[in-house]
Design a protein that fits this description.
Blueprint: E1 5-7, E2 13-16, E3 26-27, E4 30-40, H1 46-57, H2 67-91, H3 102-122, E5 126-135, H4 139-148, E6 151-158, H5 165-180, E7 187-190, H6 198-214, E8 221-227, H7 231-235, H8 240-255, E9 262-267, H9 280-289, E10 294-298, H10 307-323, E11 328-331, H11 339-352
Helix pairs in contact: 1-2, 4-5, 6-8, 6-11, 9-10
Length: 361
Amino acid sequence: MKDTVIETDQPGEGRLAHSTPDHPVLPQPKVGVVLSNLGTPDATDYWSMRRYLSEFLSDRRVIDYSPFFWQPLLQLVILSKRPFSSGEAYRSIWNEARDESPLRTTTRDQAEAVAARMAALYGDRVIVDFAMRYGNPSTASVIERLRAQGCERIVFFPLYPQYSATTTATANDKAFRALMKLRWQPSIRTVPAYYDHPLYIEALAQSVEQVYARLPQRPDVLVTSYHGMPVRYLTEGDPYHCHCQKTTRLLRERLGFGKDEVVLTFQSRFGKEEWLQPYTVEEVARLAKTGKKRIAIMAPAFSSDCVETLEEIREEIRESFVAAGGEDFAYIPCLNAEDSHIDMMMAVLEKELAGWMTSVG
């Protein structure tokens, strides 16, 4: 990236090369990187949960019913009760030391790990931050902060391996809406889905191998549980289901497992529509009833452990398996801030930074 300013006596600041001596001092141009995750409530009380759920469930990418029908139902019925149950689920996994959700903790850890790697490559010319699609830190506030720090270009990285309009697209939408409010917009690149990236598949495989190596007996089945979506979204052109299928197939091939040793399922249903199947909570019970007494389960669609993994999988889905006669239930954590995950992020980011940055030295 070519410098557009002449340095002054203050490190990191300068004036435009063609400017007059009285021109305001400007930051040296930099590149920003934003790791974007789904979101998190600020606390577990009723009103914090209600604000978060209202923002999430009002997103037309997520719930595409007509607002004239959906908003009265959401605001008057669903949000009168759901914040209590959701708050209880979050309290069971809350990071009390930092007073925040595990998702925010892990996404910050990921950003700090990527920042350290970027500093080694590019010095102070790349600034790494993280944002949430719903909740805080908001996407708009992070983009504004990066722009104020002199970032004239931004790589926006939605942390969703498999593309869906309900995740990747809505995260990008939020970034674009933030740009609409800026008088001086930075250039922006958005990172595409990475469901079949070799380093992503390798990181998943290593996480499986590490857990299997610690277990006293090999699981009968590996369950890959993805967040669900209405079947209607698939028929309308969303590629998410296909991406999930390919991720699981590539993972199975990398592990050398037979087709009967790996099962793909979908969790987290909401509403009365038909969702992608098989449903995880029902499939693990079926496995137990058919003699598969030992299973391991992972959630490849989640880049960080969160309420859907730490509470839903480890509690609700585990209970379904045990109640049906299952004996050994092993949860394989998300990739979180593991080195193999950061390696993958860096490989993706370096590709997206091509033409913008050259390494130090």
